[in-house]
């Protein structure tokens, strides 16, 4: 299986890798990668591979194959493809990655100040949303925005660690999302902690400090059912 280098260093933007397989649909599998695959509401990374002859191959997205579980890089075109065993140099679209990191971390902060179960979410470049299972009660956009930006300005550290599957099972309240369950079965689960604020399972990429987010604005609160409320944010 591909070694996911982004889990240990979300800021790394290049790496050397070897092609281990080509999929029937034209995807590329590597022995290691800095590209995050679509999952948990966060889009897959984009960028490019430099092939042995110097050709640049644009990567349109990155996904996880449902059947094999392999991480697959999807090229923008298949006119020029590397051979299995060939070395490639991976280059990440760092602007897009950083935008996803800022938004994803801001959504964790939003989750920390809205004390209701999360029913869905989406990370975008400089905008995102979370859906909450909230009773029919008023939520003030300006108040949420002010509280969110205070947490950002606090410059809280964002760190990752691991717990065992058994520890997660023994502490079900750590899981805030009702729609996406953290992956188990491999013996351990990745946790993301925002100092004195939020602690939950997450496989996505995040900034190292909340101050890197900049500013955030709650732009809209929508009613999406009897109790479902969609809260949208934009990152400044």
Describe the structure.
The structure is a single chain. The chain is an alpha+beta fold. It folds into two domains: 90 residues, Elongation Factor Tu (Ef-tu), domain 3 (Beta Barrel), CATH 2.40.30; 139 residues, Threonyl-trna Synthetase, Chain A, domain 2 (Threonyl-tRNA Synthetase, Chain A, domain 2, 2-Layer Sandwich), CATH 3.30.980. The protein is 17% helix and 37% strand. The longest helix has 20 residues. The radius of gyration is 19 Å and the shape is globular. The two termini are 37 Å apart.
Task: Describe the global form.
Answer: globular
Let me know the average pLDDT: 94
Characterize the main sheet.
6 strands, antiparallel
Q: Helical proportion? A: 10-25%
The beta-strand count equals 15
Low-confidence stretches: none
Task: Quickly name the level 1 CATH class of the largest domain.
Answer: Alpha Beta
Radius of gyration: 19 Å
CATH topology of the largest domain: Threonyl-tRNA Synthetase, Chain A, domain 2
Write down the secondary-structure element order: EEEEEEEEHEEHEHEEEE
Strand content: 35-45%
């Amino acid at each position: 299986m591909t070694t996911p280098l982004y889990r240990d260093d979300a800021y790394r933007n290049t790496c050397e890798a070897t092609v281990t397989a080509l999929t029937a649909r034209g995807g590329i599998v590597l022995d290691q990668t800095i590209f995050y695959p679509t999952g948990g509401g966060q889009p897959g990374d984009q960028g490019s591979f430099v092939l042995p002859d110097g050709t640049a191959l644009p990567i349109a997205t990155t996904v996880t194959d449902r059947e094999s579980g392999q991480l697959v890089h999807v090229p923008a075109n298949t006119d020029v493809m590397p051979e299995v065993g060939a070395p490639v140099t991976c280059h990440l679209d760092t602007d897009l990655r950083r935008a996803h990191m800022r938004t994803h971390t801001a959504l964790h902060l939003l989750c920390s100040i809205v004390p209701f179960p999360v029913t869905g979410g989406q990370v975008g470049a400089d905008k995102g949303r979370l859906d909450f299972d909230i009773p029919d009660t008023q939520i003030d956009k300006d108040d949420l925005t002010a509280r969110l930006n205070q947490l950002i300005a606090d410059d809280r550290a964002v760190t990752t660690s691991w717990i065992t599957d058994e520890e997660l099972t023994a502490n079900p309240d750590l899981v805030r999302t009702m729609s996406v369950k953290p992956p188990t079965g491999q013996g351990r689960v990745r946790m993301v902690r925002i100092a004195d604020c939020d602690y939950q399972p997450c496989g996505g990429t995040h900034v190292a400090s909340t101050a890197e987010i900049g500013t955030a604005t709650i732009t809209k609160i929508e009613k999406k059912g009897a109790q479902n409320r969609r809260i949208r944010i934009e990152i400044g």
